[in-house]
Amino acid sequence: MSRSVLVTGGNRGIGQAIAAAFVANGDQVAITYRSGEPPEGVLAVRCDVTDAASVEAAFTEIEAAHGPVEVLVANAGITADTLVLRMSEDDWSRVIDTNLTGSFRVAKRATKGMLRMRRGRLIFISSVVGLLGSAGQVNYAASKAGLVGMARSLARELGSRSITANVVAPGFVETEMTAVLPEETQARYKEQIPLGRYASTEEVAAVVQWLASDGAAYVTGAVIPVDGGLGMGH
Description:
Helix content: 40-55%
Number of strands: 7
Distance between the termini: 37 Å
Shape: globular
Largest sheet: 7 strands, parallel
CATH superfamily: NAD(P)-binding Rossmann-like Domain
Structural class: alpha/beta
CATH architecture: 3-Layer(aba) Sandwich
Oligomer: single chain
Order of helices and strands: EHEEHEHEHHEHHHE
CATH class: Alpha Beta
Radius of gyration: 17 Å
Mean pLDDT: 95
CATH topology: Rossmann fold
């Protein structure tokens, strides 16, 4: 059956690959985006996850077109990297509000429909940084670690209604952001990864798609790394 799927931040990078995987699976896919050109083949809704009214308007539009959201992938995120002594209150607040509180907003709104249907999949895109930490990314790491606690609490709260909540924690991924890094920097990062390479966006999308499948119906509260072994033991 075709499901109603929503991927936040689905117009580029990992989010776009996730959306494309669900489209290829025959699902009805909506994405939210703030700027840039959205991909074809999806219902693209402009939405700022830091604004509760914008989130409500986006869900209203998506539900009118596709019905209640059955699979939510909370992927929208930003960075504002700097050392802690240089990190402003705004640097901290913007990252937390987008990555962590924004995920809370969309999860809370999606849950309303899932509870009525007595089924649903909540999938949060975290990061290996949320498990390992990273110098210069105190705000980002905190936001991504927070997703783990949120997902596990939701797993306990919503499990009786057949709603699962899981986390995918990618490591270094081949995206536009990593492509602009100097070759020496990329080589240094790859030396730390047991598999010796970055992930493709499609590899991350495949894990997300599995978590939304029937085969993962008994998986909830899990954190699944897609990091080539970088974060082993965390």
